[in-house]
Amino acid sequence: MSEPKSSWQAVGWKLQLLVFALCVAVVILRRPDSVLNPQLFAEDGIWYSEAYTRGWFHALLRARSGYFQTIPRLAAALSLWVPLRSAPLVMNAVGIVCQVLPVNLLLSERLKSLGPLLLRALLAAVYIFLPNTSEVHISVEEAQWHLALLACLVVLSVVPVSVVAKILDISVLAVAGLSGPFGILLLPEAIVLWWIRRERWRVVVASAVGVCAAVQLGAIVSSSLVMRPHVALGATPKLFLQILSGRVYLATLRGEHAFSQSTHLLGLVALAVLATGVVAYCFWKAPLEWKLFLSFCALVWIVSLRAPMVSRTTPQWQMLRDTPGLRYFFLPTLAFAWATIWCAVSDRPLWVRVPAAAIALTMLTGITKDWRYRPYVDHHFGEYAQRFASLAPGDGIAIPIEPDAWTLWLVKREAGCSDPPTGAVDLPLPQARLSRLERIVGWVAAPEEVHDIRIFVDRRFAQAAPRRFARPDVDQIFPESPVKYKGWDAMLDLSGIAAGPHEIEVRTAEDGCDVEIGAVPFVRGD
Asked: pLDDT at residue 80 above 80?
């Protein structure tokens, strides 16, 4: 007869549902506008546009930024089932679920190797209230970071007994492994755990992680080197200290805005020694699963510092220092917070527990200050969605989304146009003040060679854009496009246009598609 589960090992399934609901509520309360006034965030516009324009399955098979990103593309696929106005809510809901799931795994018997239930409950609470996480909070675009944590916990968990649990484990590893490059860094942990435990199931786990890692590594090797911005790191010891001690440790304790360039370097050095000492002690004394978790976070942190993508102009480390709440701070922040809790509540000497407890209490300041994240700027997404619904097939609309300067360009689908061309107008810039003769520059990517580029001013035909030229930058984004000359330009005569606000529209008609590929408002000057 099997022994009943100890209440100190796991939470029952009914209580798990309640915990899930409570955590969802807490996550939403930290940024209520994600539900009350949902809007797309950054690349969310790309995921939705590509799913809508080319079909969700075709979009799912495309890598972007050098690797496959499955979870936001699946979220975009789900959002196609609702009106455009509700699409951000669906995508946010997927992000919320991804953010909460690690809590339920932590409270299950599967992770008893991390410690007793009370310790894991504290870890779950710290995770759900974690400061310094504004960029990864309720964002399906950044859900890959929460999935990376979930996949790491699956790898570290005890071998599942039921077939359903095994299927869920492999599903989590597959979705997480194909939603970011983290599987490459998780593979060593999976292999080490199998090597030491010698359990057959861990071979399956390591194989699943390895397959995903191989797929992502292939995508990175084939495209990442040309798609990532070639901006100098600008790495210096001072910047490293400010990033680690200021943007990770201090932001964990006092909130993501606690650090500034005026923060005294000696204070940062002292904090770096103390905080790193806590993490190092946890790594030294904690069980194997803790060592592997901290190793995974450290590997992600090292790679993040070696190849961040936060700027296309400013040196990368300078942007890391100057930008609070970045995604790159998530796992090191969590590792520091969890290591502190382990040192504070585990059976350790007083000289370890007392300083760790003091640090943990100080962390309450950071949790309080970062309890509520600022709402997104209201770009009136619903109004733009209504305008889109009234568009004629082939017409497009530029919808502003968060953060500022990001735009979702969406073209109304038309019958008989199964693979519409995509493109953009690079020059002039929106709201530019134009004179009598201006150069109009843009690009187009299509399944067939494009010959028809027409320019309109205030919906009236102005002229064609006859000159084509190569655009290597666009080739990097659309490597599968057979069009060899994606760039186009023309000199547009505006001498007959009255002074005041106007709009330039660019259209193309190829292979049964007559679509708008860009529209730019401008002001005609004297």
From this structure: yes
Note the pLDDT tens digit of each residue in 263-306: 889 999 999 999 999 999 999 999 999 999 999 999 999 999 98
- Measured CA to CA in angstroms, residue 207 lies from 103, 166, 202, 224 at distances of 25, 14, 8, 24
Residues 6+ apart with CB under 8 A from 34: 28, 92, 96, 138
Collapsed DSSP state (helix, strand, coil) of residue 132: coil
Distances (CA, A) of 381 to 75, 390, 515: 18, 15, 22
Lowest mean pLDDT among 47-51, 152-156, 356-360, 406-410: 406-410
In whole angstroms, what is the distance from residue 327 CA to residue 138 CA? Answer: 12
Q: Which two tokens stand for residue 4?
A: 């009943």
Report whether 119 contacts 68 (CB < 8 A): no
Provide the CA 480 distance to its chain's centre, in angstroms. Answer: 24
Q: Which two tokens stand for residue 19?
A: 């915990």
Q: How far is CA 507 from CA 28, 166, 415, 444, 478, in A?
A: 41, 51, 17, 10, 19
Tokens of 101: 């799931």
- The pLDDT of residue 526 is 65
Q: Is 157 helix (H, G, I), strand (E, B) or coil?
A: coil
Residue extents of the structural domains in the chain: 1-228, 229-376, 423-524
pLDDT > 70? residue 5:
no
Q: Which helix (H) or strand (E) holds 411?
A: strand 406-411
Domain 423-524 class, CATH top level:
mainly beta
Give dist(CA 339, CA 356) in Å, integer: 9
pLDDT band at 4; cut points 50, 70, 90: very low
Report the pLDDT value the prediction gives residue 121, as an integer from 0 to 100.
93
Peptide bond into 428 cis (omega under 30): yes
Query: How many helical (H) and strand (E) elements, i.e. helices and strands, does the chain have?
Result: 21, 11
